Amino acid sequence: MKRRGVITLASVLALSAVGVGATALRARQEPGVVRPASPDVRAPADARIRVRVLNATRTRGLARRVTRYLRDRGFDVVESGTSREQRDSTLVIDHSHHADWAALVGKAMGARVVSRPDSSRYLDVTVLVGASWQPPPEAFHP
Asked: I want to staple 110 with a disulfide (CB 3.0 to 4.6 A). Which of 37, 67, 81, 134 is the partner?
């Protein structure tokens, strides 16, 4: 009977270790932690980065707020709207093989960046705004 309890305990500990390892690996690949947006990130002056912003939440007006936020930082937001897909976290999609441009948008938004090349699009980057996105705090100017 004692041996059976030891085997059960060892099995539970082994499964727990596997679960913790899988969680840590997933957290490294797709962080669940919301990264803060960086308000000091700006588009390069010599490049026109065409961005589409899609609200992937139920929060009304979020795409409009992100459009203003990105335009204030020099990005050319050419389209905004609502996505059918609902997301918790923000995702930046690179369509034009300009990983550095997508990385700039991702840093400005505090978002994960993925590459999905599509030469048929006139866009460079698509931003799917998730529910966890918060605009960075700005100084109060009376």
From this structure: 37
